[in-house]
Request: fold
Amino acid sequence: MSGPARKPGALAVLSRREIYSGRVLRLEVDDVREPNGATGIREVVRHRGSVAALPVHEDGRVVLVRQWRHPIGTLMWELPAGLMNAGESPAEGAARELEEETGLRAARVEPIADFYTTPGFCDERMYVFRATGFTQVPPRPDDDEEIEVKTCSLHEAMEMMRAGEIREGKTLVALLLEAQRRAGAER
Amino acid sequence: MSGPARKPGALAVLSRREIYSGRVLRLEVDDVREPNGATGIREVVRHRGSVAALPVHEDGRVVLVRQWRHPIGTLMWELPAGLMNAGESPAEGAARELEEETGLRAARVEPIADFYTTPGFCDERMYVFRATGFTQVPPRPDDDEEIEVKTCSLHEAMEMMRAGEIREGKTLVALLLEAQRRAGAER
Reply:
């Protein structure tokens, strides 16, 4: 018996049901065959992808936004971020979200991270950029966004992280990368 | 008019529909009223929470596992991790997942991060621990897990990160925290 080699661990999809297709996500349930031959199901949340920007001022200060996160039922400090729009690149999306939420129009956005937020059940991909070189324009938040903007030193942001006041994945990744970058620049 | 002050940005939930309730997640769609009075919907994925461990050997080497991620359709290098079980603490869950996936029984697990993976549409909370002091026992992966274990220096793990071979949120957070911890210890 020949044929394409099975990728190690790959599941065979026997059938797929779409349970829901909505505004920001789609839910599918796959009937699968495991590598060991057993059958089971996999619940998969399909997502169109997200973009975020870590804005860094010339003096090194960073910018965070606080908004209500309905699934958690609380306000959270995070990077300016949002969903990717059709037809735009991740860099364009990150610059757009940054400008809409904070009024900061960035001359430069540089990719710093590209990862999956929770690949066990969801395909959301997160593109994170470092944004610099700002012109201030009026922010244009979406109708459903009430956003507080905070500009602070990286040190203060790291203290917020340690104190549990920043607790969202992409924001931790971006702040830790920025701290590492500056530690490297010091040497 | 008096009454409890509205939390800034909080949405009023007018009604809630459960769309799906399954193995690892539940999907709800809420009809909400925005702070500006407009009505809309919010899609919310409910999740029971996740635990992960960064295993660190006495010589500083770290341990990663590679497994198939069905939503992405690829193998991914990540921290040993899994879902929280009912009745166990996050620390117990992280130690259990570590032992099941790698056979490393940890004498100590210390909390290093506690965050939400993607709070825009999902309430999944991720508890990350640093595990040390190992006894090797036989691994006991779940029937549906085919897991490759890799032990490498932190430097090599950071190189994998920079090369895009590690691209999953909790793993980036844990490795960056570990690098920061060691940079601090050097001073």
Remarks:
- The longest strand of chain A covers residues 104-116.
- Chain A touches chain B through 67 residues (CB under 8 Å).
